[in-house]
Specification:
The protein is α+β, with helices and mostly antiparallel strands. It has one domain (3-141): Gamma-glutamyl cyclotransferase-like (Hypothetical upf0131 protein ytfp, Roll), CATH 3.10.490.10. 26% of the residues lie in helices and 31% in strands. Helix 1 packs parallel to helix 3.
Length: 160
């Protein structure tokens, strides 16, 4: 299964901290959504509504993950995010359009969104502390009942 990521999860350091490795990834674009900064948060949100129809969000598609890795990412995401099927354009040799899943911010939290989120600013100002927080998260869930690492999702069609 694949995930379209557009914020802190684009950082190899964050992925390595959470998953113990950086899964294969490739650039992708999500159309009809906008990436916002969130008040009092260092990570972003994407949201689609009538005002974002012409907007695009550049990000990455992560693929080749195990069920456990997907469960870790799902658990890591805030409850304000809903795992949503989205169409992205990527550089996949087999297709220009892909249906994948992304963590989309719930529209009832829109009042918390402020302007655009900047990946480079996140890396420069917050990455080190964010990775430490991710390390702590991974330690906290290490013994939780998540699917095993041998449960590869490659070849499944759950996200199409």
């Amino acid at each position: 299964m694949s995930r379209f990521v557009y914020g802190s999860l684009m950082s190899p350091e964050v992925l390595s901290s959470l998953l113990g490795r950086v899964p294969p990834r490739r650039p992708a674009t999500l159309r009809g959504y906008r990436r916002f900064a969130i008040v009092d948060r260092v990570y972003p949100a994407v949201l689609a509504d009538e005002t974002t129809i012409n907007d695009v969000v550049d990000g990455e598609v992560l693929h080749g993950m195990t069920r456990r890795e997907l469960a870790v990412l799902d658990w890591f995401e805030d409850e304000a995010y809903v795992l949503t099927r989205v169409d992205v354009t990527d550089e996949d040799a087999y297709s220009d359009e892909r249906v994948v899943q992304a963590y989309v911010y719930t529209s009832d939290k829109r009042h918390e969104l402020r302007g655009d989120w900047d990946y480079d600013a996140f890396r420069a100002e917050h990455l080190e502390a964010y990775v430490r927080m991710c390390d702590e998260f991974r330690e906290d869930i290490e013994d939780n009942d998540l699917p095993g690492d041998d449960s590869s999702c490659e070849g499944t069609d759950d996200d199409a």
